[in-house]
Amino acid sequence: MDQLRALRYFSAVVETGSFTKAARLFSVPASALSRRVADLEKSLGATLLKRTTRAVQLTEIGRSYHEQVRDILVQLEQSDESVRS
Fold first, then answer.
1. Strands 49-51 and 56-58, how do they pair?
2. 3-class DSSP string for 32-58
3. Taking a C-beta distance cutoff of 8 angstroms, is the pair 36, 1 a contact?
4. For residue 10, which of 43, 36, 31, 32 has the smallest C-alpha distance?
5. DSSP code of 17?
6. pLDDT tens string 33-51
7. Between 30-44 and 3-16, two packed helices, what is the crossing angle to 10 degrees?
8. Predicted pLDDT at 53
9. What is the CA radius of gyration of the chain?
């Protein structure tokens, strides 16, 4: 599993509130994005998102994980930009 990609997908789902919207951001099928997030949850042994047919909500552990992941992804983006410029 490409963990960095899975983290980006997870973060996008949280920020958009939707697997479909997040999938559009990455131009991938929603089913593929959902599978990656499910694989991430499986590798962590924790449920990060509560899924229903109408909504996606963070679990308590998902909220904590997202805060940490978001900071890491921002730092990575800043590092990439620094190297590019």
1. antiparallel
2. HHHHHHHHHHHHHCCCCEEECCCCEEE
3. yes
4. 36
5. T
6. 999 999 999 999 999 999 9
7. 110
8. 82
9. 13
pTM of the prediction?
0.90
C-alpha count within 13 angstroms, C-beta hemisphere, residue 66: 20
Tokens of 25: 């951001």
Q: What is the pLDDT of residues 42-85, one digit of tens each?
A: 999 999 999 988 889 999 999 999 999 999 999 999 999 999 99
Task: State how far the Cα of 83 lies from the Cα of 73, in Å rounded to an integer.
Answer: 15
Backbone angles phi and psi of 50, in degrees to 5: -95, 120
46: left (phi over 0), alpha (psi -120 to 50) or beta: beta
Q: What DSSP element (H or E) covers 27?
A: none
